[in-house]
């Protein structure tokens, strides 16, 4: 990404796309009963409330009536249908893990099987996006959390802490390529959730091999524990590595969320908030729900002079419904240098 003179002026930036993750599968309802919806009606209403507050992308997980994360695709279909009926323009982004919450006490939190996750491509009504991780990796979401972050919650119990400390992401090359193809065949956009530059490089190689002909819509997930830490140096290196045609959202956890989102707003990038990422105010004097977090970002973005995208504008920025026919078109649209031709010497570049 290039930061030329004037790149920090709001009139030269895209409008802000706000993603909200209000379902928080790592928490139990008792951790924040005022803001964790359990019934289907409440889960649909939470999406409506987030949309009305200014979020145009909904990161979706589903709960069963017992409060645990649902692993039934029928429940996902039901929630998506309910949201489509109430806020049809909202971008629905299904979390590709389905739900990583452990089913019983003492179990490790884990993503579902390869075959089950492939079935996300068959959801009906279909979502706009499904998130995907690249390269199997540790996902120790509690590594950079401190005692104050989890005090009084289910993550503070020995079994809760251990469950999430040992979580890993299964995302091997064959599964990833097949999953992207299945999603594309069904008109569902792949949203890349990337832990570091090495995963971005893997995506670029897939595009060069003609097995990933999609827009580079991605989130830098800076949560530690196998992912980048949310510091300025990691951020700058990742942003520098992103090509000009990519669309980048920043994500982190707990009290890192607001500072990182303020950086994203200032830089012309995009933001994510919600109780899946953080449940506290910056002073930790009380818990802060998803809608209030959205309203805070809208207020701050307005102070920066940067308008918040409406749903139609967010769909255009995210290139919803766009797919490419081959590697050459994919590389050009995403801002990567072209593939080297047979016998070509020197640095590759697009012809003037």
From TrEMBL:
Pfam families membership: BKACE (PF05853)
Superkingdom of this protein's organism: Bacteria
GO MF entries: 3-keto-5-aminohexanoate cleavage activity; metal ion binding
Keyword DNA damage: no
Gene3D superfamilies: Aldolase class I
Entry-linked PANTHER family: 3-KETO-5-AMINOHEXANOATE CLEAVAGE ENZYME, 3-KETO-5-AMINOHEXANOATE CLEAVAGE ENZYME-RELATED
Alphabetized InterPro entries for the sequence: Aldolase_TIM (IPR013785), BKACE (IPR008567)
Protein name: 3-keto-5-aminohexanoate cleavage protein
Cofactors: Zn(2+)
UniProt keyword annotations, A-Z: Metal-binding, Transferase, Zinc
């Amino acid at each position: 990404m290039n930061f030329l003179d004037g790149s920090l002026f709001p009139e030269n930036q895209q409008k802000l796309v706000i993603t909200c993750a209000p379902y928080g599968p790592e928490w139990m309802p008792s951790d924040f009963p005022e803001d964790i919806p359990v019934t289907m009606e409440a889960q649909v209403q939470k999406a409506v409330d987030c949309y009305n507050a200014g979020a145009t992308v909904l990161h979706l997980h589903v709960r069963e009536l017992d409060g645990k994360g649902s692993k039934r695709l029928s429940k996902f279909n039901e929630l998506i249908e309910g949201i489509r009926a109430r806020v049809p323009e909202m971008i629905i982004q299904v979390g590709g893990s389905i739900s990583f919450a452990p089913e019983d006490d003492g179990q490790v939190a884990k993503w579902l099987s390869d075959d089950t996750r492939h079935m996300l491509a068959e959801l009906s009504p279909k979502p706009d996006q499904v998130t995907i991780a690249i390269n199997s990796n540790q996902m120790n979401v509690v590594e950079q959390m401190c005692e104050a972050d989890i005090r009084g919650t289910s993550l503070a119990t020995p079994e809760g802490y251990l469950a999430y400390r040992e979580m890993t992401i299964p995302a091997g090359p064959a599964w990833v390529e097949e999953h992207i193809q299945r999603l594309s065949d069904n008109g569902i956009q792949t949203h890349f959730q990337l832990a570091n530059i090495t995963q971005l490089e893997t995506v670029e190689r897939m595009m060069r091999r003609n097995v990933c002909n999609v827009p580079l819509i991605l989130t830098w997930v800076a949560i530690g524990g196998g992912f980048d830490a949310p510091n300025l140096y990691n951020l700058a290196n990742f942003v520098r590595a992103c090509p000009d045609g990519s669309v980048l959202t920043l994500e982190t956890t707990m009290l890192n969320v607001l500072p990182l989102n303020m950086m994203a707003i200032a830089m012309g990038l995009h933001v994510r908030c919600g109780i899946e990422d953080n449940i506290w105010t910056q002073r930790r004097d009380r818990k802060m729900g998803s809608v209030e977090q959205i309203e805070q970002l809208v207020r701050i973005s307005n102070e920066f002079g940067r308008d918040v995208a409406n749903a139609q504008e967010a769909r255009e920025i995210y290139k919803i419904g766009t797919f490419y026919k081959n590697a050459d078109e994919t590389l050009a649209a995403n801002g990567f240098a072209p593939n080297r031709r047979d016998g070509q010497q020197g640095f590759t570049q697009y012809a003037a």
